[in-house]
Design brief:
mainly alpha
Amino acid sequence: MSYVFISYRREDSAKSASQIYEHLVQRLGQKSIFKSVDTIELDVDLRHCPSISVVGQCDVLLVLIGRKWLQIEDANGQRWLDVPTNCVRLELETALNRSNVRVIPVLLENAEMPTKQDLPASLQSLVDCQCIHVPDAQDLQKDMECIFAAIQPSFEPADASDKTQAAQTWFKRAVAAQNNGELKAAIISYDKAIQLNPNYAPAYSNRGVAKSCLGDKPGMLADYDKAIQLNPNYAGAYSNRGLAKANLGDLKGAIADYTQAIRLKPDAVAYSNRGLAKASLGDKQGAIADYTQAIQLKPNYAAAYNNCGLVKSGAGEKQQAIVDYDQAIRLNPNYAIAYNNRGAAKAGLGDKQGAIADYTQAIQLNPNCADAYIGRAFSRYALGDKKNAMLDRQKAMELFKQQGNIERYNLVASNLKGIGKVNNNSSMRRR
């Protein structure tokens, strides 16, 4: 039998604790639900805190966190969190130290998740737990479904079909957390999905993406490898691994993975990413062919038009590049990079006024676009507007310094003619 323990502070969330308790009892039965004994004095001896032994036997511990949760103090002005013998603190410590207990923070009425600096060392792992938001503690009905969904996998039967269903529930929770930027919480949920279904290839692939965003390079590659091992026809895993290899500098390996992804399932993103890898290796015609194919599959793919324009511009086909930039901007009028790149192409064709107009638009859309300031400075200087050219140059240097791009900073600082060299190094986009 599975159990749920509700940990709360009476001064902070007593009413919500009672409501959540009643809802859970109705759904899961009274024998499955326990509540914290927070009426015991703050300095109570551990031997008189019976809830501790109960916590160790539970599968889930819900931590109810209201807006007062962090600040509650005892009669001596000491926070309950800082009292080592406090019963509620001991409950949390016990749960966080048990691998069999899943801790779920429930943030009530727009309370914020505590930071590690807010908590004693023994409770800091609470920050890594996936939380549930309950914005209106007065009307819990709709939010209880989220709580039930989070708890339900711990109550699954042991047969294989139910485990598969439970794994899917964890997978959906992980995807939701990942989409919200809660990457550590997503990885924990993917871990659970994989534990329930070790052959869950999409869980491995998605977990690899989350690990990539957190900088875990060995972990991401291992997950992509496992996803492909489980499903050799998984185009998405090949595409993800190709992107990982490209970011690690293995462009040939990336191209091989993109090619396999395309063979299995032709996709505009895979073609575009392969085009970027080919362009980086100097295969301009191959890159243009891939971008063209990406655009055929996805006619509204602004980034593919922009990247194709960059390759054409680098190959000396600046007029054709401008046609691609025009299309990218038509599809995405807020595409600052495309305005910048079109400005560079116009400047290369001698249209300095047109270039200045495009650089200015890029700056309006993205005031931190140092390349646009460099390009505009170069065009202004060529037209004799040295005063404003030097102002743009100075702004570009400030931005490069702020962004940690010392190489470009030094190049611009050396002389004004270096501006043109820097401006040719424009940005491409993957995905």
